[in-house]
């Protein structure tokens, strides 16, 4: 079985995104710390830990625990990360009843929508790429090399990312199964054996169906690779390989916009690393796939040209 790894320290996290993802799991004193940051982020960047504790009506020890829950070793690192991201997200965050998605208000112009979507996507890619742990990726690559079969599952919009995983790995010459719903995954549980790898994708990391799939397959000795936005979620706790995204997602939203971009970024990193690990096999598989597609294109062209010729003849041309 491959050696596994998880992200432990996460100094590149955006504190605001992490707070929103984990808010319900905080104790009342921790929620006061969270509220202070959410409502006065700029001011917090200038506060000492003593000032912060007083403003949040809590102790300095609670502030430190709160920072560690967010993935920071202490208050100074949290404050630095907050200062960095407050500047980065300037002008794109609204988070009120008028927000449609990504800091976009219902009365924004078309140009503002384009600018804000682009800024949010760029910020998400930059932050997520910093969170990809190279050791975890290397360990997963070895596990994928040894695996007989790979599985992929995600509920809702995450299912699109799971389908992309299946597409990429099948093209690289791996046997990869994608399930569109958790019932199909559970009834196919014998497809994966001990040492095989199952990819699970969930922004919240707490989707009941996805956790059920994770539990059943993990009990069979299948290695679990998780892509999620929440380091303290149920899925994160059972992961053998944990990959974190940093993406905003509102409760009321148009769709899984930048969260899907972040997930696909990680999938690309994994697929390329896996191709490098078994390059000769991957290159042969990619060549075969391209040749098959080319033959199909040529066949369609031949049919089209033949149909034109037949039509011309029937018209006496």
Automatic annotation (TrEMBL):
A GO term, aspect molecular function: DNA binding
Q: Which Pfam families match?
A: HTH_6, SIS
The UniProt keyword set, sorted, is: DNA-binding, Transcription, Transcription regulation
The yes or no answer to whether the keyword Transcription is present is yes
InterPro entries the UniProt entry points to: Homeodomain-like_sf (IPR009057), HTH_RpiR (IPR000281), RpiR-like (IPR047640), RpiR-like_SIS (IPR035472), SIS_dom (IPR001347), SIS_dom_sf (IPR046348), WH-like_DNA-bd_sf (IPR036388)
Presence of keyword Transcription regulation: yes
CDD domains registered for this protein in UniProt: SIS_RpiR
An individual GO BP term: carbohydrate derivative metabolic process
**Per the database record, which ranges form the HTH rpiR-type domain?**
13-89
The residues covered by the SIS domain are: 140-280
Name the record gives this protein? Unannotated protein
